[in-house]
Automatic annotation (TrEMBL):
The lineage of its organism: Bacteria, Pseudomonadati, Pseudomonadota, Gammaproteobacteria, Moraxellales. It comes from the Bacteria. It comes from Faucicola atlantae. This is Uncharacterized protein.
Amino acid sequence: MLPTLPADHTDTSNIQMRHTEQVNVEPKPLDLLTLIDETASNWQIHRCQLIEASISQTRPMQLIYHYEALPDATKAQYPLQGQLLKRFDEAISREDFATGLGIAVQDVPQAWQLKFTGKLVLYHTQPDVALRLHWTNTLKDFVPIYQADLATAVAQSFAHWQWIGMVEMVNRDRAWQLVGATTHDAAEHHAADGRQGVWQLAVDTQFSVLPPVLADAVKQSLQADDVSAHWVAAMQDAAQSYADNFIATQQIAAC
């Protein structure tokens, strides 16, 4: 059944006025850092994805790592001195270290050398916004973990995890315009900025990159919050899934 059209005498001025008012409502400014600080527990994980991963036990490491992993009795018997001492920060294989120290390679503990990087998307419902961040378990080429069990090593490798790189955000809430204080230069280079020194993000369907100063403040706030433990667990799960596949592949190759 077709809808009934209004009669000629129907007064539509109020209807039109209300519609115009709704369309032209100005979004309210909402400080991004305040939003994050006050609603940290309300942010949920949309996706945690592993981008790059490296698992090894054969890469060269700084000589001092090999030495510090030795039992105390071995270190007392073979003090680090002479040419080896001069090379303490040189990357060296486990085999070369054992030869240089004069011990069997089996007496040198073998570390899992782990590096994981990925991205995490967090979302908030009221207001309807989302953040996309990038993370790593270590800022170094890898972190050595001395554990026989790879799963335990993966979990321990996130002890000093960090946010890295850019931070992106999308605002899907017409009622709010996200703002954040930043440097003048950063503000000038952001297309959405209409006020000196203030970054602004209106409603959109695409992620936008935050200015560096504001991105650093967001990462610092999210790193410090206790709620981040839930996000780290998601990172560890993504890394662990990769590690499980790594072990399965190694077992197949050994058959």
